Amino acid sequence: CTSRNVQSTAEEGVFPKWMAGINSTLNTPVPAILTIMVMNMVYLLVDTSSLIPSFSTVEWLFYAMTFSCLLYLRYTEPKNIRPFKIPLPVAIFLFCDHRNVLLCSQFSQKVAGFLFL
């Protein structure tokens, strides 16, 4: 999933164009996979005890922002034609779920830090 995100972002011109390559036999974004592998190996050289929770928090934040934008666009532009449409109750549930996970993770880190000082 992450490699496809890197590949499509490279196709849009945000990342270098060589990351947008697709293997013709396997139909997979090999340059993006190799780039992610190298970056993960570099991340292993730093202290991962603080790195992993921060990445997780940022990931949940972006998921919550994605679903909030989905709800906003469904409210402000209801007549737009969309190639893929998530049912509104599912979108509301996913937004609330991701927001709660994000808030609970922040709250639990602060409480755990406060309790163990």
Distance between the termini: 39 Å
> What is the H-and-E element order?
HHHH
Largest sheet: none
Mean pLDDT score, rounded?
Answer: 78
Low-confidence stretches: 111-117
Sheet-strand content, in percent, reads: under 5%
**Content-based structural category:** mainly alpha
Fraction of helical residues: over 70%
Number of strands: 0
What form results from the Cα inertia axes? flat
Oligomer: single chain
Helical segment count: 4
Query: How many whole angstroms does the radius of gyration measure?
Result: 19 Å
Report what the structure shows:
There is one protein chain. It is built from four helices and no strands. It is 70% helix and 0% strand. It is mainly α and 117 residues long. The longest helix has 29 residues, at 48-76.
Features:
disordered C terminus, mainly alpha, 117 residues, single chain
Can you lay out the helices and strands and say which pair or pack?
Layout: H1 2-12, H2 30-43, H3 48-76, H4 88-115
Care to give the gist of this entry?
The chain is built from four helices and no strands. It is mostly helical.
